[in-house]
Amino acid sequence: MAGILFLGVGELVSAQLRYSVPEEVQVGSVVGNVAKDLGLDISTLTDRRFRIVSGPNDALFQLNQNNGVLCIGKTMDREELCDGIKVCLINLKIVVEIPLEIHYASVEITDVNDHSPTFPESEQRLEIAENTPPGTRFQIHAARDPDVGTHTVRIYKLSSNDIFDTEIRDSEEDKIPFLVLKKPLDREQKAEHRLVLTALDGGSPSKSGSLNLTITVLDTNDNRPVFSKDIYTVSLQENAQIGTLVIQINATDLDEGSNSKIEFMFGKTQKKKVNDLFELDSVTGEIRVKGKVDFEDAEMYRLDLQASDKGQPPSTGQSRVVIKIKDMNDNTPDIEVTSLSNIVPEDLKPGTVISLISVTDRDSGVNGKVICKILEHVPFDLTPSIEENMYSLVTKGRLDREVVSHYDITITATDCGEPQLSTVKTLSVQVSDVNDNRPLFSQNPLELYLVENNGPGTSIFSVSAADNDMNENAAITYNFVRGDGLLRDMTSFLNINSETGDLSALKSFDFETLKTFKFQVVATDSGTPSLSSNVTVHVFILDQNDNAPVILYPVSSNGSAEGVEEIPRNVNAGHLVTKVRAYDADIGYNGWLLFSLQEVTAHSLFGLDRYTGQIRTLRSFTETDEAEHKLLILVKDNGNVSLSATATVVVKLVEPREAFAAADVKSASKEDEDNNVTFYLMITLGSVSTLFLISIIVLIAMQCSKSTDYTSKYLQETNYDGTLCHSIQYRSGDKRYMLVGPRMSIGSTIVPGSHANTLVLPDRRGTSTEVRPCFDSKLRYPSYLSMAGGQRRGIQPWWLAFCFPVMFGCMEQVSAQIKYSVPEEVKVGSVVGNVAKDLGLDISSLEERRFRIVSGTEEAQFGVNQNNGILFVHEKIDREELCKTVSPCLMNLKMVAENPMEIHYVGVEITDVNDNSPNFKDEEKILEIAESTVTGKRFQLPTAHDPDVGINTVRVYKLNQNEYFSIQIRESGEDKIPFLVLQKALDREKHREHKLILTAADGGNPPRSGALNVTVTVLDSNDNHPTFSQEVYSVTVPENVDADTSVIQVNATDEDEGANGDIEYFFGSQLDQKIYDMFSLDKNTGEIRVKGEIDFEKVDVFKLDVHATDKGQPPMSTDCRVIIKVLDKNDNEPQIEVTSLSNMVSEDSKPGTVVFLISIIDQDSGLNGKVICSLSDNVPFDLKPSYQDNMYSLVLKQHLDRESVSHYEITLTATDCGQPPLSTFKTVNIDVSDVNDNNPEFLQNPIEMYLLENNVPGNEIFSVSALDKDLNEMQL
Q1: Which of 649, 643, 508, 632 is nearest to 585 (CA)?
Q2: In a 3-state reduction of DSSP, which class is residue 340?
Q3: Is this structure's pTM higher than 0.70?
Q4: Domains, the chain, ordered by start
Q5: How far apart are the first and last CA of the chain?
Q6: Using CA atoms, how far apart are residues 155 and 167, in angstroms rounded to an integer?
Q7: Theoretical Cys-Cys bridge with 1096: which of 384, 394, 609, 1128, CB 3.0 to 4.6 Å?
C-alpha cells in the first residue's frame, strides 16, 4: 500500500502507508496488514513491541502483534471525527523497537450516507409584503447533512404551488436555497401560504429532510377604505342641539393593522360653513351637530367625506352625506314695508295704496304661510296680493288730517306654524295736508265801528281767517273782493295788508258823508289750487260831535234860521204852533238834539218840547196877548262838547181863516216828500234781486258747460309691445260701466256704450273669474293700466277686465309684469328697455309723477330716465358678484309712479357672458402616491371654480399627455369633480416625480381655461431589497488583534428611501456561536469589529453570513458572505514533543543509536512554524533531522560510560523562524543504564585485621568490601 523510505538508521517515514475504510464498519474489521505492508518480520513483532504510539486517544484502531493486522477498535463516525472536513484522515504513528523504527500510517474514513439532511428548525416563518414584486428572493434555512460528497445535500424541492419557486445559490460547497416569488401576493385573497421545502442528498437511495415554510403575507396599504354607501341621505331638524348625532357613517378596509384603521375627515374642498356646523368623529364616523343648524340658511348640506387609513402612504375613499334640514317654526315673520312715502295726502281716495308690505317668513311650508292683519281701528286696510305673503296697505276711508294727522298702524304678521309666531311692526303714517280747507273767518259778517275823522293811513281794523290746513295751505293772503253790489272805489280810501289782514284808511271818514258801508275781504290760502272764503265787513262810521245842529226849519229865504208862523188867535192851549226842525249830521248823542227856549216874549204863552222841537201853546190867546211873539230857540246836541244852533220863530196871531190856508199848503208839501223816498227804495231792492238772479244763472251755466268726455284726455288708443302675464276669462251678468281717470273714483258711473274706452267690471254677485298663466311674448297687447286709472292710454274691454281685477282691485300686485334680459358687463348707460312705453305710461307725465325705482339692489344697478321712461344700466353689472352661482340671475325692480300711484314689477335677467376663466384655488397641487399603488386607483383633484354659469362654466378637464395617468370626471350634481387615475404602475426609483398639468375649460365660445400644476410625488414603497456592493467580501486580519479592531465595513444600498432605505445589518441566523463571540457587527454602519481573541492556530478562516435588512414594513433583506482570513503571527512558541522509548539508555549503546524521537510542533504557519532544534553543548548526543519538517531523532554521538556519567540532562532548544523568533527549551533526563563492564575492586590489598581473642563464636569479627562501579546486580 505504501512504500517505506529509510533515512539512515532509525529515521522516520511520514505517511508511509495509507488506508481507507468506510465509517460505521464493525469493530474488529480489518483495515490492512501494516507489518506486511511495512515489510516487517511478523515473527518478531511481539519481541519488538510493535505498537501504535500516537493517534486518537479513544483507540479507534488496534494493531495485532501476532499478525501485524490493523483493525477497527471502535465504531467510527466520520461526521463526529471529521465534521466539516471533506477528507477524513486519521494519522497513526507506529513504533517497532530493537531496533527502533517509526512508521506513519494514514487511515481515510470514507463517508457512507448515514445521515439525512436536516434543517435547523422544523418550521420557518417568513413574512412577505403583498406588494413584493415578482422575482424577489428570500433566503431560507439551508439543510445540513453531515455527510460529504455526493451524500450531502444536492437539491431542494418545494411543494407544488402557483406563487413560489426555489432557487439554489452555490456558495463554495454550500447550496443556499432561496424562495422566489413568481406571482404577486394578495393578502386579502390569501393571508398565509404553507409550503414544504424538501432537501435531498445524493446518496443512493437518497435521504431527505423537510422544512415547513409558513409564509405570512404582510399587509400593504393596497386597498382603499370603502364606504357602505356612496351617498348617505339623512334628515335633521333645524335647531338641533349641539352634540346631536346626525348620522354614523361606516367604511371598511380589507387591509389589516394600521392599514385598515380608518380615520374619517371632511373633504379638503369642504366649505368652512360646514366645518362650523358639523363635526366628524375621526374614529367612529359619527357626524354631530357643532353649530346652529338653520333651515333658513341652508335647506340642505352636502358633506364630502373622506375615509383615510393609517397606512404609509394612506389610502382614501370618498363619500357624500346629504343632510336635509327639516324646517321648524323658529322664525318669526319679517315684515318689510316698502313705503312709497310715510307721508300720505289726506285727499287719497279709498283703496289707494299707501305702502307695499312684503311679509317674509324664512320658514317653509305651513310654517312660512303668514296671515297679516291690522290691529287698530284705522282708516286703512291690508289687501292681499295674488302673490303669497304680499299685501298692500290701502286706505279704507277718507282721511282728514285736520282730525287725525298721524297714524301708528300696528301690523301683525302671524304664521301658520305650530306654535304660531308673530311679528308686530308699527308703521307710522303721517297724513300730509292738502288744501281741502278754506280759510274761515271766525265771524261773518264782520261789523266795524269806526270813529269818523280818523287819521289817514292809520290802521282801523284787522281781519283774520283761520285755515285748518298747514304750511302753505294755511298761509293766507287777504284782498278786497270786487264785484257787483260792492264798493267799487274801495281801494281809494281803504288799504288791506295781504299778509296780516290789517285794514288802514287812506283818508278820514266823515260820518255825515258816509255813515256805513260794506266790503268783502277774500282770504285766500297758498295751496294748489288755492281755496278762499270771503267775509263781509260792515263798516259803521261812528259819529263824532263835529257837526253843529243845522236848523232845517224854519229857514228864511236868505238862509237864516228865522221863520214866521201865523196861528189863529182862537186856538186852544196845546195847539201846535210849529215844529222847529233841526238836523245834526252826527248821530247818537251827538245828533240827539234838545230844544230849549232861550228867549221868549211870553213864557206863559208858548211851550217848547225839548225833544221834538214842537212849539205849542200853553194857553189860549187872549186879547191881551200881543199879536206877534218872537221865540229864540236853542238847538243843541248831546255831545261831550255840545254844539248848538239857534232859530228864531216869530209867531203872529192872525184871524182863524188865514191860519187854515197856510196849514193846507204845508201838509201837501210833506206828503210829496214821503212818496219820493218810497219810490227810491223799491228801485234799489229790485236791482239787487235782479243781479243775484243773474249770478246764479251764470254759475249754473258754467258748471253745465264743463266737458265730461275723458276719452280724448285719458284713454287715447296706443299700442305697445308687452308681455301678458295673466289672462282672465269671465262671465258677466249685470254690468256696470266705469271709466277710470285721474282724480276719479272707481265707482264713477257713465253711460254704457263708450266701446274701447269703457271698462266692464263683472258684478261680483254673479261673476266667476279664472286666472291662468299666459306667456306669449309674441302677441301685442295694449299698455298696462295704472292702478288709479292711468293717464292717456288705450284700453280694450278684455284687457281692462284683466288689469283691473289683478292690478287695481284692492291694489293687488302683479309680479314681474315685464321681464328684460341684459348681459352682464354691458357699458354703463346701456338701454335695458323702455319701461314707460312697455307699461303704457304717459311719458310726458313721468317726471311730474315721480316715476322711479323704489326697490331693487342697494347699489342701484339700474336707473330710469324720467324724461323718456328708459330703463338703463346705472352701474357696471357683474353677474357673479350679484348672484354668485344662482341661475337665472333675476333682479326684481319695483317701480312706482305717483299721482295717481301705480306700482309695477320689472324683472331684469342678467345673462352670463364668458368673462371668467376657470380658476383653481391653488396654483399647484401636490399628490403623494405610493409606488405600490395598484393601477386603476383614483385620486381626487381640486375642482376648478368658474363664477360663470350654464355653458360658460367648467365643462371639461384635460390632462397633459403622459403614460402613467389619465383623467376621469365624476358628476356630482352640477359639479364636475376630476379624478387622477393611475394607468401604469409607478416606480419611484425610475421617476421620483411626475409633473402634470390639469386644464379646466369652460363651454364658452371661445372657451376659457385655467391650469393647475399637479406634482405627483411617488412615495417609496419597500419594493427593493438591500443590495451589497459585493456578494462575497474577503479580508485578512492578523491574529491577536486588539478587541474592537475594525475588520471590514460591509455596505449595502437600498434604492428605496426613508425607512425603506434605512438598512440594518445582522449576522446570519445559522452562524456558530463562536462567530458571535469573535466578532461584532454594527447594525447601522455594517462595520465588523473584533470582539474576542483571534487565534490563527484555532481558526485560520472565518466565514460570516451577513444579513442586511431595511426598515420598511414589511422589511426586506439580502445576504452576503464575509470571508475573514486570519494572518498568522509568530505568537506560538514551538512545542517539543519527545517520544521516548525509554528514559534510560544503555552505556554500551552504539553511537547513532536513537534515544528519543523529537517532534517539534509550532502552531504558527509558514516561517513562523518552521523550527530549528538544537542541543545543549558537551553532551554525547546529537539531533538528526527527519525528512519531515520539525521532526528530529536524538541519537548517541559517542560511547557512554555510566561509571563516568550516569545521568544527562539534555536541554533541547526549539527556535522558530518567525520575527521575532520564539524559542522553547525542554530538558530531557537520560539515565545511562549500567552494563557489567567493571570488575569489583577492593580499596586495600592486602588488608590487615586485628582480632581480639575470646571472641564469641558466631559474632562478626571483620568485613571486607570490594567496590564495583557497575550497579545493581552487577555490583553484587
Answers
A1: 643
A2: coil
A3: no
A4: 1-112 (2.60.40.60), 123-218 (2.60.40.60), 226-326 (2.60.40.60), 334-432 (2.60.40.60), 440-542 (2.60.40.60), 550-668 (2.60.40.60), 715-911 (2.60.40.60), 924-1019 (2.60.40.60), 1027-1127 (2.60.40.60), 1167-1276 (2.60.40.60)
A5: 52
A6: 10
A7: 1128
